[in-house]
Design goal:
The protein is of the alpha/beta class. The protein contains 10 helices and 17 strands. The chain folds into 2 domains: 69 residues, no CATH class; 267 residues. The protein has a 9-stranded parallel beta sheet with strand order 4-5-6-7-9-11-13-15-17. The protein has a 3-stranded antiparallel beta sheet with strand order 1-2-3. The chain is globular.
């Protein structure tokens, strides 16, 4: 089991002593990864071993060293949980070893952030056997499962990043469990191969206000989409199944204000129809060879970024509310028609 010390420094008194606001100890991912100690004064080893240098340490620092006061643990539990919500979940969970008061604080955090890269970064994948790698991957799945079973509070943010191939049923269970906690923001980075479909609950979670989807999989949108409170939708490197998938998705998001599609595959789209009355910001940056007709019905659009090959045709309402536009066309050897440019002016 490897171990390493991590420290966050608040300042230097100039006399060979530093005041540390946090001390973290990194150990095995499946158990404890990081723990935080008290706001205390820690002298450098070379200073502690030299009485003459130690005598020069600022008296204020020496007094704090003597008190060894645990200021963090004296904070209200709600504030402690709020602070932990800004850490990667593996770090937040690890604080449970500090004391009785810290033991269950992480079970009330409202932001959950799981990233298997944090687990794999210390492993030499080229030298790792398949059996060992599978054990490591399962430790990640088991960790996420344990946290979701222990943390039963309503969630503000759920972020899941997976770069390895996992059982789809496990991933969809994690996503569905988070959605059931009145989730407000969902961020999914499913970069592994073989993922074949999001759980349907994503499309009917009325508490969601922001969704970010990144991954190389086909976005199959069900018939029923009910995202009445969704205001931000970001998609990257996805593939759309057909024209209706986009139409069904947007029709179920009446309050959508920000819509972004980047590096996504539009080869299955013949008519790219964006109809969103409340939309204020649109980013379309796909470079899809333009094999579709682009229809834009966004009367309140204020910011537009559109980079792609020239489409087969364009149809759009007057963009009277437009304030900023960043337009980039690639014409595949032909000049950009002036009439087309006028559509965006």
């Amino acid at each position: 089991m490897g171990m390493a010390a991590v420290v966050v420094c608040n300042g230097d008194d100039g006399g060979g002593c530093r005041l540390w606001g946090m001390v973290a100890v990194v150990v095995d991912y499946g158990e404890v990864v990081t723990s935080m100690a008290s706001s205390t004064a820690i002298v450098r080893p070379e200073t502690a071993s030299d009485p003459a240098r130690l005598a020069n340490v600022n008296p204020r620092v020496r007094r704090q060293m003597g008190r060894n006061e645990d200021r963090i643990s004296n904070l209200p539990s709600s504030l402690m949980a709020h602070i932990l919500s800004f850490l990667p979940t593996k770090d937040a969970v690890a604080t449970g070893i500090l004391s009785t008061k810290w033991k269950y604080t992480w079970t009330t955090i409202t932001n959950l952030d799981f990233d298997d890269e944090l687990l794999l970064e210390s492993i030499n994948l080229q030298k790792c056997t398949k059996r060992k790698l599978r054990v490591v991957e399962m430790s990640f799945i088991n960790f996420v499962n344990r946290v979701l079973l222990r943390n039963l509070t309503d969630l503000h943010t759920f972020r899941l990043r997976c770069t390895r191939s996992y059982d789809v049923s496990n991933l969809n269970f994690f996503i569905s469990t988070a959605l059931a906690r009145n989730l407000r923001e969902l961020h999914l980075f499913l970069e592994m191969e073989g993922y074949n479909g999001l759980p349907r609950e994503i499309f009917t979670c009325t508490s969601l206000v922001a969704i970010e989807l990144v991954g190389r999989f086909v976005l199959n949108v069900p018939t029923l989409v009910r995202l009445q409170n969704l205001k931000t939708l970001v998609m990257k490197t996805l593939e759309f199944s057909d024209d209706d998938s986009i139409n069904r998705l947007l029709s179920g998001c009446p309050l959508l204000e920000e819509f972004s599609i980047r590096s996504s595959d539009l080869k299955n789209i013949s008519v790219f129809h964006i109809s969103a009355p409340a939309l204020k910001s649109l980013v379309l940056n796909c470079w899809s060879m333009g094999g579709y007709k682009f229809v834009l019905n966004t009367p309140n659009l204020q910011d537009l970024q559109y980079h792609d090959y020239i489409a087969e045709g364009y149809s759009m309402n007057k963009l009277n509310a437009l304030v900023n536009a960043d337009i980039g066309f690639v014409s595949r050897g032909h000049h950009v028609p002036e009439k087309l440019v006028a559509e965006f002016v």
